[in-house]
Write a structure and sequence with these properties.
By secondary structure, this protein is α+β, with helices and mostly antiparallel strands. It has two domains: 3-96, Phosphorylase Kinase, domain 1 (2-Layer Sandwich), CATH 3.30.200.20; 108-318, Aminoglycoside 3'-phosphotransferase, Chain: A, domain 2 (Alpha-Beta Complex), CATH 3.90.1200. It contains eleven helices and nine strands. The strands form three sheets. It has a five-stranded antiparallel sheet. A two-stranded antiparallel sheet has the order 6-9. Helix 4 (108-126) packs parallel to helix 9 (252-264). The N and C termini lie far apart (61 Å). The mean pLDDT is 94.
């Protein structure tokens, strides 16, 4: 099926004619159907986003609010919104077109480069003043926003999602001594005390576009973005097994990501050692067989068990 015929899966002939007139699209249109929440029509200079169904409208509205707020060349910028029943039963949007492709297998060298580039972009996005962020984005996608901007103590945090600093320190207490427990608890509390930022919230390879040289070209799909703990963009729990396999040692992906990020953030941050302790403990809790969180839900039980064992070994080494 050629592109013009495939467009009919989104817009039938009468809708397409109206769409071209209203949105001033004269050239070829390339449809993309691989997104879970939206159909995308690529024109020469813009990407048009259409909700797949009525249940997705709110999430796409949220995503486009992020695009209207963030001003970074590697993040799409909102160009327009239309609510025209003659084109679509749902609102649809136009954003700047970022060219690139997603990648599968990755070498250790490529993983380091990608993580460092991503850390720099995240630092710029996380430095956006929360005064610019609309209230709708003051919470995660499945919570009602508060009446006042969230703070470090009440924003969504992966550590609090798993029970909080004291609970997590107690969880791993059997494998660490009293002195080491104090060090760990201090690290967990320092990491959980970071001020909230406008975070992506669902960051992994499928949402990253790379150019032909392998350099980071764009960060897409901000539908779970919101004012959250910065840590949500560093759990990396949705990253593919191939990327984890490219680590030379446990924690490499996060280390490269955090180090570049911290070098470019304007706000004071915990040290990498503290973040490493916190994320290693996070893995132990999130990968526990009895855990009911959404973290790592796509990974096999065998993979989860191996990763949790690596996290335990790493934690012991860090606290010796």
């Amino acid at each position: 099926m050629d592109d013009e015929a495939a467009v009919a899966a989104v817009l039938v002939a009468t809708q397409l004619k109206r769409f071209r007139e209203v949105c001033e699209v004269d050239g070829p249109i390339e449809p993309r159907f691989d997104g879970a929440t939206k159909h995308v029509l690529l024109a020469d200079d813009r990407a048009f986003l259409f909700p797949r169904n009525h249940t997705i409208v709110g999430q796409l509205e949220r995503e486009c609010e992020v695009y209207a707020t963030v001003d970074h060349p590697l993040v799409p910028k909102l160009l327009g919104r239309w609510d025209d029943p003659a084109i679509s039963p749902y609102p649809f949007f136009a954003v700047t077109l970022i060219r690139g492709s997603t990648r599968g297998d990755i070498s250790p060298e490529q993983l380091q480069t990608l993580a460092e580039q991503l850390g720099v972009v995240l630092a710029a996005c996380h430095d956006i003043s929360l005064e610019r962020v609309p209230r709708r984005l003051w919470a995660n996608a499945w919570s009602e926003p508060p009446t006042t901007p969230p703070t470090a103590t009440d924003c969504y945090s992966p550590l609090r999602e798993l029970g909080g600093a004291d609970h997590l320190a107690e969880l791993v207490a059997p494998v660490v001594g009293p002195a080491a427990r104090t060090t760990l608890l201090e690290a967990l509390k320092a990491v959980d005390a970071m001020d909230p930022v406008l975070a992506h919230g669902d960051l992994y390879e499928e949402h990253l576009l790379l150019d032909d040289s392998g350099a980071l070209a764009g960060i897409l799909d901000w539908g779970f973005g919101g004012v959250l703990s910065p840590l949500v963009d560093f759990t990396c729990s949705q990253w593919a097994s191939a990327s984890w396999a490219a680590e030379r040692s446990y924690g490499d992906l996060r280390r490269h990501l955090w180090t570049a990020y911290a070098e470019h953030r304007s706000a004071p941050l915990p040290s990498w050692d503290q973040v490493h302790l916190a994320l290693t403990t996070f893995d132990i809790a999130a990968l526990a067989p009895e855990s009911k969180t959404h973290y790592y839900w796509q990974k096999s039980p065998e993979w989860q068990a191996d990763r949790r064992a690596a996290a335990y070994n790493c934690l012991k080494a860090l606290l010796q």
